[in-house]
Each structure stands twice: as structure tokens, then as C-alpha cells.
Amino acid sequence: MRLHRLEVAAFGPYAGREVVDFDALGADGLFLLHGDTGAGKTTLLDAIAFALFGTVPGARGEVKRLRCDLAEPDQVTEVVLELTVQGQRMRIARNPEYQRPKRRGEGMTLQQAKAVLSWVGTVPAGHVAEGITRIDEVARTVERLIGMTHEQFFQVVLLPQGEFARFLRANTAEREELLERLFGTERFSDVENWFANLRAERGRELSARQQSLREWVARFAQVAQEEAPEEGQAEWVDAVLAESAERVAKAQEREAKARAAAKTAEIVWQENRSAAERIRRVRTAYTRLSAIAEQAGQRAEWAEEVEAAHRAAAVAADADLLERRLAQLAEAESAEALRAQEVPDAADSSAAELRARAGSLREEAGALAELVAESEQQQRDLARLAQLDAAAAKARKQAEDFAAELGTVPEKLAASRAEEAAAAEANAKLDGARTRADELTALVRDADEVPRARQAVTQAREVVGEAVDGHQNARQHRLDLRERRLEGMAAELAAGLHAGEDCPVCGATDHPSPATHTGGLVDPEDERRAEVAEQQAHVRREKAKAALQEAENRLAVLVERLGEHTAETLRAELGEARDLVATLSEAARRKPALEAQVGALERKIEQLTERRRTAERTAVEVETEARGLVERLAEREERLESARGEFADVGAKRRHLLGFATRLDALAEARLAVAGARERRDEQAKLVKEALRAKGFADLDEMRAASRPDEQITKLENSLADAKMMEETERRRLAEPELFGISPEDEIDVATSEEAARDTRGEAERAFAALRAATTRHTDLTGLAERMTSFMAELAPVEERYRELKALAEVVNGRGQNARKMSLRSYVLAARLEEVAVAATARLRTMSQGRYSFVHSDAAGARGTRGGLGLDVLDDYSGTVRPAKTLSGGESFLASLSLALGLADVVAAETGGALLDTLFIDEGFGTLDAETLDIVMNILDELRAGGRVVGLVSHVEELRQRIPTRLRIRKSRTGSSVEIHAA
To answer: pLDDT band at residue 911, thresholds of 50, 70 and 90?
Structure first.
């Protein structure tokens, strides 16, 4: 089976339609399916399963809710899968059952499930070109072609998250059901069932006891690692126990000697390590003292440098202040020169003269302050006068316009009131007209439906008749097949007899008179199909009866509603009612607009009247104010003309006087600042000269040369202190009592003693492990021997009572003389399971680096259940066979993956089964370490080299680096989407 293309729409987290091209993904044979948690990776695997079988694996299949909650209401939920099975390419489209909004009205309606299987290319024999549209027939066709039910498909081909170990840990019955379906051994099951009816109640007790004894013998043989003899098992058990006890004694003696040798070697090694450590400390001390002595001259220079830096630091602050004083003086002199340029006629005046002249000018400007305010008011009054003239003209014009418009409104108001009354009357009649039109519409629809309802009743009655006939025919066909099969069972067994071979009934090798049957033999599968056909025919019969009842009820309701009316009279009345509704609706529709129009006209009359009165009142007020303002302007203009002189106005003259006074004050302040700066400079220069002489410096340059940053001084002082401390520390270390008499030239061979200690310790550990294994084995053998002896003693009387039942039925059902204690069907399946175990073991040993192997057991199951399909794991580290349930998480993943791949290999190798070319592996890689992951990847590379396509579903980041072909699932608030990254 190979997948080609998958489409999902409104399915799971996918709101829109997403397409996955498996041909592109499988070009390399290996691809990675990854994405955020909850994005919808496993949903794609669910979609494949749903397309094939109409259900999804695991707990998700128990919840019938596959539609995406984020999908648009009109988006159809659908899954389309294109694949090739047994050389036949097909396309399967499925729609699940889900709730969708109704297309008419409100609420939800149930969208029924659908399935369509269409052939791509050549149509196989026995099928029509149009494909298959029935859900149950699609399911049967898929199961027949793939050769598995959906439960088996989920375990072998589609291995979803959390279900890898399910097959590995399945019981014998579950494994038997799967393998029987895969390898087509149903005919052996039929033979078993035929003879199983002959078994008596006494056989059950013996079977259970024999099965228990075989289990204990097998366990004892596995622990002893020997084959159990057919006879003399008690003597064999005693010999094995004696040999085991002797092995334990030898292991104890070896372990004691090895432990003593390891202890002695450990003491010698520790003593040598301690001596070597003391020599190392002496050498280190001598080396450091020698380095300190070599640096004595450099440390003297550091001390002189630190002392000069400390002296320079005492003068540096005064020197920095002197530089700032010089900068301040230069700045003050520059400012004075700029101020002098602003008042050239006062450049030679003193600061006192400048201040006196500035005061005189400010007094003159103060006298003009009141006239400046009047000048500004004069300008504002002139502007106000112009505004008043314009406002008066505007108010007169508005009053005239309002009066003209007011004369035309009353006529319009009267016309609008008449139209409003007519619209109100139409609105009152509209509801009754609409109700009558709706009633007539419903009656016309019912009248039109009556012929169809009568036809539906007729058709339903015909379908009921056909369904009844079909059901009776199917039932009679099933009864005929059952009778023919019962008559031909002896002939069916005789057909399998061959000369020289044992008869499965009597055991004879001579077959003189084999039974015959004149008619054709009935296959059990034919009988089963007939039973299914009868059930389906019964369902169709009941559905047809229900449909007929529903059609008759619908027709009765329609006739009752119509009464004496006919379709023609109803349509005539409906036309008149609709015309009346249209006329009244048009008139009523204008009612709100007409009401608003009347109100607007009434308000407009009131507004125009009020606006005309306001405009006339405003014009009178403005003209009065303008006459008073003209008189005040003339009087103020005479005073301002005499005060401004040669300037444009009084304000300009006052601003000139104040600006000149300000420049005189600024020049006076600058000259006082220069005098103060010179005085401060001279004082600071005197202080610096005295500090240089006190600290032993000739001038500032010598002091600057000796100065050092604080960080450098601290570093030099720390270096001097560290050297002194190190010297004192190393001399004290050499004076320690434990280092007395030790020379730096002494040598101790630690490596030899360490190697000896390691060798003896390893030997002791190996001896202890051997002792523990031997002790455990002896304990297990002793316990098993006790149980075996007890079972042997209890089994003898039961066997005596059951000897009369040693017939052919025991052999066929795995009892009596059957050495393997296996049924015929289990024997056949066990042979296949051995192939699976061999194929899986080859991969498991590679993945586990040779530690684990699968062990197929022919032993019977516990408590009387049938065996032959046991599957455990052999741990080469301990040499024991243990259940798969004891494996760790990562080991369980490797084992289940190996088994799944082994099953796929065996199924693909069977000529009669479907080739499993596509395999999905969902999660589990996160439990593997890096080395084991490399091994697993090599196994997967071998798979794709064999022609398979393997899809890995994982969050592991390292897999994204290893696998170039990836299918990424992106998650968002509007739904998930897919993105293919090809190699």
C-alpha cells in the first residue's frame, strides 16, 4: 500500500482545505512530520485512517466530533485520500456526520456521513467504472484489498501516538486474531472448531495442569540454559541443582580473593598519591620564592613611583583650580569687549558713570508708559470701529432675507400635512394585508406539494414490496447455504486426505472410502456473507416501511389544510393580496418622512421669525456703539501726536530708551566681572607656587609628570602587597612539619600503583558480579525445582483418568501426544510468528547494541489458555528472558518499533498479502539518547533503501537536522495549515 495524496477540509484543527503530496514527501523514502503541540500532526494520521475505514484510532475514535470549530458555516468537512493497493490506484472521499447551520431559518441540522470510492485508471474486475458510494461497501472493499480491519491496520501500518507497545504487550488471543487475518489461516480454525465440540469436561483439568507443568519446566530450562529432557526430568533437575551449587561455591572463593587483593592495592595507591602531593607543594613553594626574588628591582621602582604620585596628588587640586581661574578671566574679558561694541559712545566710561546714565534714561521711559497704553487702545478702537460698520450692514441684510423667506413656508406646510394623513391610514391597513398574503402563500405551497406527496406514497409502497421480497429471498438463500454446508462437511474433510498421510479424524493412513458430495461445497465465508446480506435486507425492509408511513402522514396533513380550495383560486387571491400589500407598503413607507417634513416646516417658521427680530435688534445696537467710539478716537489722537516726536509712535520711543539703558547696564556688569576675575587669578597663582615648593617640585610640569591616576596607584600598591604576602605564605608552607625533609627533586611512581589498584578493583567487581549471577541463578533454580516436583506429584492421578481421551481431537487441539502442546491453528501462526520474531530481533539487536532479542515461546499459556504465540525479550546482559513490560520507556520504544517493522517485513514478504509500502511512526524518539538515535536512523535508512516510505512524527529538534524532507504543521487562531520543505 502506497499513499499518493491527502486532502483535509474543516477536519480537526484545519479550518480550510489543506493538501499533502505524499509522492513529493516520499521521494527520499523518509520524511519528518513536525509542528507545535496541538497543531494537528496526529490529526493527519487520523485523517488517513478515517479515509480508509471511517474511524480514527485510540480514544479519539470514541468521540464523534471531527469537524473543525473554526471552519466557515458553508465549508464542507471532508477527507480525500489517493493511494495504490495491490497495484490498483483509487481515490476515497469521506464526509463525517456533523451538525451544520440550517440553510433556511435558524438552528442546526445534521449533515449525514458519506463515502465515495472511485478508481483511478483501469477499473478492476467485478467493479463498475462509477465507483462505490455506499459506506458499508466502501469499508468492505478497503478491508478486502488491504487485508486488515481498521484495528489491525492501526497496529501494523498506522502506529499512532501511545499505541506502539500495544501489539508488543498483547495477549495470545489478540496476537492470534491479527496474525490469522494477515496470513489467511481461517480454514485451520474451522477444523479446530469442528473437533473442539467433541472435547469432554475431564480434559480441561488435565490441560490446565499440563500447561502449568510445561511452563515451570520451560522456565527451569531457560534459567539453567539447558534443554529439558523428555524423560528423567527429576534426575535432570537434581543434577542441575548440584552443578549450580558447585558454581556458587567457586564464585564465592574467587570473590573473596579478589576483594582482598583490591583492598591492598588501594592502600598502596593512596599512600603514593599523598607523598606525590607533598612533593608537588614543595616544588610550587620554591618556584614562587624564586620568581619573587627576581622581581625585587622592579618592585623598588614601583615604590618610588607610588611615593612621587602621592606628593603630586596633594598639589593637583590647586593646580586645576588655577587653570579654571585663568579660563574665567579670559571669558570675562571677551564678554566686556562685546558689550563695549554695542555702545561705542560710552566705551571709555567707568562702571559708575554707565549705571548713572542708564538710570536717567529709564526715568524718561517711565514717563511715557501711560501714553503707550493709550496708543495701543487707539489702534484697537480703530479696528473696532471698522468691525461695527460691517456688522451693522450685515444685520440689516439678514433681516431683509429672513422676511422674504418667511412668506413662502405656510403653503408648503399645508400640503405636507395632507400627505401625512394619507400615509397614516395606509400604515394602519398594512399588517392585515400582509397576514392574509402569508396565509395564501402557505396554502398555495401546500396545494403544489399534494401531487408530489401522492407520488411519494405510490413509490414508497413499491419500495416496500421490493424490500419485503428481497428480505425473504436473502433469508431463504442463507437457509439453503446452511443446509448444504452441514450436508457437505464430511466431504470437505475428505477432500484434504492424501495417500500415506494420517486422517485428521481416525488417524489411519489408508482411505478406502472417502465421503463425497454431489453438489458444490459451501465455503464458510459464503455463509457469512449470506447472513450479512440477510441482515442488510431486513434493515432496508424496515427503512422502507418507515418511509411509507411518513409519506402517508404528510399527504393527510396537506389535504386537511387545503379543505375546499384549489390551486387556481388560491393563486388568484394571492395575486390580489400581494398587489394590495405593495400599494399599502409604498404609501406607509413615506409616513415617517412626511411626519419629519411637517415638523421641520413648523420649526422653520419659528426659527425665521426669531432670526428676523434678532437681526433688526443687532443692527440698532451696533450703530449706537459706533457713534460713541468716533468721538473718543478724535480726542485721544491729539495727545499722542505731541508725545511721540520723531518716532513712529510713543511705544517705539519708549522701547528705544529702555534698550539703550539695558546695554549700558550690561557693559557696567562686564567691567566689574573682569576686575573680580583678575583678583581671583592672582590669589590662586600664589597658593600653587607655595604648594609646589612644599612638595619638592620645581614647577607645574614636573608635578604633572609625577602624577598618576588613582587606578594605577592602587594597582601598584596591590602588586607590592601581593608580592610580600606571597613570600610570607610560601616560607610558612615550607616550615610545615609534614613537608620537613622533602626535596623538590624527589620522585614517586603513582601511575604504576594506580594501574594496579584499578586492575584489582575491576577483577573484584567482575568476581562479585559472577557471584551475584550464580547466586541468583541457584535461588531461581531451587524455587522452580520445588514447584515442578509438586506439580509432577499432583499430575499423575489426573493423567490416569484422562488416558481414554488420547484420540485425534487431542492432537488437533494441542493435547495428548502433541509434543509442542499447540493447536493446529496456533502451530501455523507460530511458524509465521517465528518469522516476525526473527525479523524484529535483527532490528532490535542493532538498535539495543546487541542487548535485547525477541524470544518466541511454544509453551502453552497460563491457566489453561492456548499457547504457541508467546513473545518475550532476552536480556543478554543478565542472560534472562523477561516480559516486555519490564523494559524502560526508551527500550520499550525500540522493542515496539522493531516488532512493528518486523511485522511489516513479514507481511510484505507474503505473496498473498498487501505490500505495506508506507509506514508511519508517531513519537517516541525523545526517549532515546544520541547514540541510540543514530542506530534507529540507520535502521530507517535501510527501510527506505528497500523501497518503503517512512514518515516520522516527532518534536525532537535533532531530527530536523537529519531529515531534509519535512512536513511542517503551523498553528494559528484561524486554524492550522501544512507546509512542505523538500530536500
So the answer is: very low
Q: Is the C-alpha dihedral spanning 40, 45, 46, 50 positive or negative? A: positive
Calculate the alpha carbon distances from 239 to 365, 775, 781, 782 in Å. Answer: 139, 17, 11, 12
Question: Nine-digit cell at 886?
Answer: 519490564
Retrieve residue 901's grid coordinates: 517493522
- Cβ-based neighbours of 544, under 8 Å, separated by 6 or more: 460, 463, 464, 466, 467
Q: What are residue 799's DSSP bridge partners?
A: none
End-to-end distance of the chain based on CA atoms, in angstroms?
Answer: 24
Weakest mean pLDDT among 615-619, 816-820, 939-943? 816-820
Burial 696-714 (b: 16+ CB within 10 A, else e): ebeebeebeebbbeeeebe
Report the distance separating Cα 369 and Cα 378, nearest Å: 15
Residue 635 CA to its chain's centroid (Å): 92
Q: Which of 872, 799, 876, 811 is nearest to 845 (CA)?
A: 876
CA atoms within 13 A of residue 230's CA, in its CB half-sphere: 4
What residues are paired with 90 via a beta bridge? 83, 119
Residues 177/167, Cβ–Cβ less than 8 Å: no
Can you give the three-state secondary structure of 422-444, one letter per residue?
HHHHHHHHHHHHHHHHHHHHHHH
Could you give the CA distance from residue 801 to residue 781 in angstroms, rounded to a whole number? 31
Contact 912, 86 (CB under 8 A): no
CB 921 within 8 A of CB 953: yes
User: Any idea which residue has 466431504 for its cell?
Assistant: 491
The three three-digit cell numbers of residue 166, written as one number: 500495544
> Do residues 539 and 468 lie in contact, with contact meaning Cβ atoms separated by under 8 Å?
no
**Which of 116-120, 675-679, 812-816, 914-918 has the highest average model confidence (pLDDT)?**
116-120
- Among 869, 823, 847, which residue's Cα sits nearest to residue 934? 847
The residues with which 34 forms a beta bridge, in sequence order, are 968
3-state secondary structure of 919: strand
Measured distance CA(844)–CA(846) in Å, rounded: 5
Angle at 678 between CA 673 and CA 681, to 5 degrees: 125
Average pLDDT over the chain reads 77
For residue 541, give every residue at least 6 positions away whose Cβ sits within 8 Å of its Cβ, in sequence order, or none.
464, 467, 468, 470, 471
Q: Cβ distance 706 to 697 under 8 Å? A: yes
Q: Residue 215 and residue 281: Cα distance in Å, rounded?
A: 68
Distance of alpha carbon 296 from alpha carbon 728, whole angstroms: 15
> Phi first, then psi: what are they for 49, rounded to 5°?
-60, -40
Q: Which of 26, 4, 44 is nearest to 977 (CA)?
A: 44
The CA distance from 599 to 417, in Å, is 10
pLDDT at 162: 41
Question: CA–CA separation, 756 vs 765, rounded Å?
Answer: 14
Q: CA 840, CA 72: separation in Å to the nearest integer?
A: 47
Instruction: Answer for the pair 153, 49: CB distance below 8 angstroms, yes or no.
Output: yes
Structural contact between residues 915 and 957, judged by C-beta atoms closer than 8 angstroms: no
Report pTM: 0.38
Q: What is the DSSP letter of 67?
A: B
Nearest to 283 by CA among 833, 677, 744: 744
